[in-house]
Amino acid sequence: xxxxxxxxxxxxxxxxxxxxxxxxxxxxxxxxxxxxxxxxxxxxxxxxxxxxxxxxxxxxxxxxxxxxxxxxxxxxxxxxxxxxxxxxxxxxxxxxxxxxxxxxxxxxxxxxxxxxxxxxxxxxxxxxxxxxxxxxxxxxxxxxxxxxxxxxxxxxxxxxxxxxxxxxxxxxxxxxxxxxxxxxxxxxxxxxxxxxxxxxxxxxxxxxxxxxxxxxxxxxxxxxxxxxxxxxxxxxxxxxxxxxxxxxxxxxxxxxxxxxxxxxxxxxxxxxxxxxxxxxxxxxxxxxxxxxxxxxxxxxxxxxxxxxxxxxxxxxxxxxxxxxxxxxxxxxxxxxxxxxxxxxxxxxxxxxxxxxxxxxxxxxxxxxxxxxxxxxxxxxxxxxxxxxxxxxxxxxxxxxxxxxxxxxxxxxxxxxxxxxxxxxxxxxxxxxxxxxxxxxxxxxxxxxxxxxxxxxxxxxxxxxxxxxxxxxxxxxxxxxxxxxxxxxxxxxxxxxxxxxxxxxxxxxxxxxxxxxxxxxxxxxxxxxxxxxxxxxxxxxxxxxxxxxxxxxxxxxxxx
Length: 559
Fold this sequence. Notes:
Blueprint: H1 2-12, E1 19-22, H2 29-38, E2 50-51, E3 53-56, H3 70-73, E4 75-76, E5 84-88, E6 91-98, E7 115-121, E8 124-128, E9 131-135, E10 138-142, H4 158-168, E11 182-186, E12 191-196, E13 199-204, E14 209-210, E15 229-234, E16 238-240, E17 243-254, E18 267-268, E19 271-272, E20 282-293, E21 299-310, E22 343-354, E23 359-368, H5 374-379, E24 385-396, E25 403-412, E26 438-439, E27 442-443, E28 453-463, E29 466-476, H6 479-486, E30 495-507, E31 510-522, E32 546-557
Antiparallel strand pairs: 1-3, 2-14, 4-5, 5-8, 6-7, 6-32, 7-10, 8-9, 9-12, 10-11, 12-13, 13-15, 15-17, 16-17, 17-20, 18-19, 20-21, 21-22, 22-23, 23-24, 24-25, 25-28, 26-27, 28-29, 29-30, 30-31, 31-32
């Protein structure tokens, strides 16, 4: 606490302005800035490993790109020569519709819900010397209609339900947020900060994104709503004689959804499958930094580690800094830490921008749980791991100002084959922190969730702010559960094939982003039409397939 007070005072007496952030998931603008970097028109030291992006006086210059204007970042009331600034932020409105099954991903405070759902956010940004205040609360309303979830007996046997509850009991991920329409108001993309030397210290509820991924981030994304946290982070790369550094250290509080899994009062094979979770919030701490070497332009790589534990287990000075302790289980004097009341993960990521080729490649590689020692870490590099690899490439059209964009991203969180001799459990679930890696019932990392894998290919036509394109995605739902519950029945895999079309446009002060998803689900909820009286039908057993349409429209308007 004394260290925090000293930092606050030392920054408060200094002057620096212009530290407005661009919220994660902002329509059109994030993608535009990233493309400008591939074209060599944006500072290559900006790694895009940390979002929201911050626009500072000495960082990302508000005059460095044509798109930075009052039309996109709000109307300012400040006068030349004044140290204070007051800005009305753009109004954001979103509407989504899921026809049959919920398929909400990377939409912040919006929830998994069938039917119509709306989002509204507005607010202001103000500065007084080194102090900045950004207030942008969010309002969410969802129709929250009933839909077909994990099938009850006899469509799934009681033994299958028991296996399913191995996941329900170790993660807070309700199928449905109650029986009524859902309404919620959050602090949204709000913060209060002290800023100096390209660094910032403050309180925030903004969504965060760590790593270079475009569609998925394994460690932190905007899949769930933002959570309250203290943050100490860079607002721009810190330039040194050996290269540029960026970092973020946060300490926050994670909360549950308040909703139970389906059929939680049922008994399966005579046992109560549902085990009530601890009624307690979670203490969360994470540290991440990246480095861009001076000698290799466009290259950046970094490390990240997070730890969560229940508030009741956070006692004493050392327990308040879990991200800095017990990297290996050998350091815990309790059977190598196997019974420690902490959930943790760590890993590394990298991105390399080739401006001369208008392309970038990127990756993430992370491991959950702590290894016993360095030898265990080296011997079991793929256990339990999650990874993402991606490539993003622009193709210029010489005859016009237009271009084509190609993006491929592959993410895998399901366990490797080593689970056959050493089951490490799925990503985002935990035996002791039984709310899992979630906030308000949604995973903080990849929207694919526990055991999810996906391959995504996108092609789009671009001219200025206009972007029109399509994509195809293959998404395997919780492969770890499928193996545990149905092995060796390979006909049970729940696989979605998604066709995605989208349009992004700018009209004066209006940014419009719209997309349409068509989903063909094979073996939806791992269900097949298996007749136990006719086992000869295997493996030609027909699956229960479903079709879903998802419409998503985002509008940003500046007064």
